Amino acid sequence: MTSQLLNILPLAAGAAGVLAGGALFSFSSFVMPALRDLDVESAVHAMQAINEKAPRSALMVPLLGSAAAGSVVGALALVDRIPGDRVLLVSGAGLAIAAFVTTAAYHVPRNNALASLDFSSSAAAAYWPRYAQTWTRMNHVRVALLLSSGVFLIAGSSAP
């Protein structure tokens, strides 16, 4: 890799983490609270529609990009092949990977479970309150991981 790319990669990974974290912060701060104010049927139907669009949205670029680029940065930092603060770069990479794992292991299965329910069913009505509470709580975690990752990667970068 060229030295210019090695200087830019941590910044790009960090920016992707901050962008994804900011987008997901909107869910914690106003989307989920607004959905909880709706009747259960409307809330479930709306979240099902959101979850259907999300995997094909532009949000996937920074969300997946932060994990992919962060992984490369972390690996290069571990073998001392990238300039910058090694501890911050490896930490930022780990946080980006943790955010991706949180999405894949926690949010996706719950979203899939919600998608399998008829929004007007009693099963959906029973599932929604717990889903909304725990999904949002873990989204707070995911946002913190992404924003922290971004800060660490950018701070650890040697780019001016």
UniProtKB/TrEMBL annotation:
InterPro entries in UniProt: Anthrone_oxy
Transmembrane intervals: 12-32, 59-79, 86-106
Keywords assigned by UniProt, alphabetized: Membrane, Transmembrane, Transmembrane helix
Entry-linked Pfam families: Anthrone_oxy (PF08592)
Superkingdom, natural source: Bacteria
Transmembrane helix keyword on record: yes
Name this polypeptide is given: DUF1772 domain-containing protein
Species of the source: Ornithinimicrobium pratense
